[in-house]
Amino acid sequence: MSDDWCTIESDPGVFTSLCEEIGVKGVQFEEIYSLGPEAFAALEVEKIYGLVFLFKWDKETDDRPAVDAADHGIFFAQQVIHNACATQAILSVLMNATAENVDLGPHLKEFREFTANLAPEMKGLAISNSEPIRKAHNSFHKQSSFEIIQDKDSKGEDAFHFVGYICHEGKVYELDGLKKGPILIGDVPAGTPWAERAREEVQRRIEAYSKKAGADGSAELRFNLMAIVANRLQDAEKRIERERFLRQRANISLVSRNEDVELLDEVEDDDAPADIPSFEDLSAQDVPAVRAIVARCTSTIDEMGAVMESEKKRRAQWAAENALRRADLVPLALCAMRHLARKKRLMPAFEKGKAAHAKRVEEAKAAGKH
């Protein structure tokens, strides 16, 4: 069964598209570039639904006890397929999200109900046999005209593994499909975002890996951390819609007082969200206060419009990058190399490329010193 699942790249665009292909709505992935206290500064911490941690895997003893998933009310599946740890870590987070935050879509909703009373190992087998999940996962299979065969004495490529972190009923858990059950990290301190507690645990693990790498004489340390957050494009659209309803009500309130205003919105008031001030609430405020509401709404609409444009550009870039991932560019590269070789321009192009790469490396090093 493991041979039917490919390895996929750890990338926000890949993971967001993967979830959407399975049918999940309302989420996207954001890469975390720092593990300091400022790690989540650019995110709305209350809209972080989970973390996915990628690290270089090595066989080691982990004495941390696992808890019973059923007793703690957690969806947990053991990993039974080698190449699906990324998808399994993502599913572990999504399956434990509330319906209020994440729309799992018809397939995962049915899947969660079907596997609710199964043991963790059977849940893992159910994932491996889910055609929609496997199809979405394998849609990111790297196309290549050549098959690379490892020499029998070769150590092969480094192994990497994904684990998930969630908050459930005020406690942070680590979900690692290679374990027998969830690992209880601890309680979330009062007044502290749960992701901060998870960040501390990830930082602890990285520091432990770093010490081990130093002891082994290896300075290499590779890891990646992503947050599963609310879909920013959808959030911006909802925010704009809400502000338009409020601006329209405020403007109508001003018109009723013979104020000169420009009616910018044509929305059906019967569809207005329940949490915005009513006409009666607005009529109780003086004209300057209502005009201030209109101004704030306009400012927010402009701000969210900019967010929408930015997110649309990101998604267009993700789509282009994912298309390249699915394309086999080897024939194009070979054709270009043959063409350059015939014109005796292959080696000069190669040297030019080497020089450009060396320059970028030096510029990156210089930028890192400032």
UniProtKB/TrEMBL annotation:
Cellular location(s): Nucleus
Site (Important for enzyme activity): D176
UniProt-listed Enzyme Commission number(s): 3.4.19.12
PROSITE patterns assigned to the protein according to its UniProt record, in alphabetical order: UCH_DOMAIN
Pfam families the UniProt entry points to: Peptidase_C12, UCH_C
SUPFAM superfamilies, alphabetized: Cysteine proteinases
Keyword Nucleus: yes
Keywords: Hydrolase, Nucleus, Protease, Thiol protease, Ubl conjugation pathway
Catalytic-site annotation from UniProt: C85 (nucleophile), H161 (proton donor)
Site (Transition state stabilizer): Q79
Catalytic activity: Thiol-dependent hydrolysis of ester, thioester, amide, peptide and isopeptide bonds formed by the C-terminal Gly of ubiquitin (a 76-residue protein attached to proteins as an intracellular targeting signal)
GO MF assignments: cysteine-type deubiquitinase activity
Domain UCH catalytic residues, every copy: 4-230
Recorded GO CC terms: cytoplasm; nucleus
Keyword Disulfide bond applies: no
Biological processes per GO annotation: protein deubiquitination; ubiquitin-dependent protein catabolic process
InterPro entries: Papain-like_cys_pep_sf, Peptidase_C12_UCH, Peptidase_C12_UCH_sf, Ubiquitinyl_hydrolase_UCH37, UCH_C
Family of the protein in this entry: Belongs to the peptidase C12 family.
Name of this protein: Ubiquitin carboxyl-terminal hydrolase
Species whose genome carries this gene: Alexandrium andersonii
